[in-house]
Amino acid sequence: MTTTPTRPVHLGEPDGSPLLAAEELVAGYLPGVNILERCSLRVHRGELVGIIGPNGAGKSTLLKALFGLVTVRSGRVTLDGEDVTNERADSLVRRGVGFVPQNNNVFPGLTIEENLQMGVYQAPKRFAQRFAAVVEIFPDLGERRRQRAGSLSGGERQMVAMARALMMDPSVLLLDEPSAGLSPVRQDETFLRTRKINKAGVSVVIVEQNARRALQICDRAYVLDQGTNAYSGPGRELMDDPKVVELYLGTLAADVEDAAVRAGEA
Ligand SMILES: Nc1ncnc2c1ncn2[C@@H]1O[C@H](COP(=O)(O)OP(=O)(O)OP(=O)(O)O)[C@@H](O)[C@H]1O
Ligand SMILES: [Mg+2]
Question: What domains, with CATH codes, occur in the chain?
Answer without folding.
Answer: 20-258 (3.40.50.300)
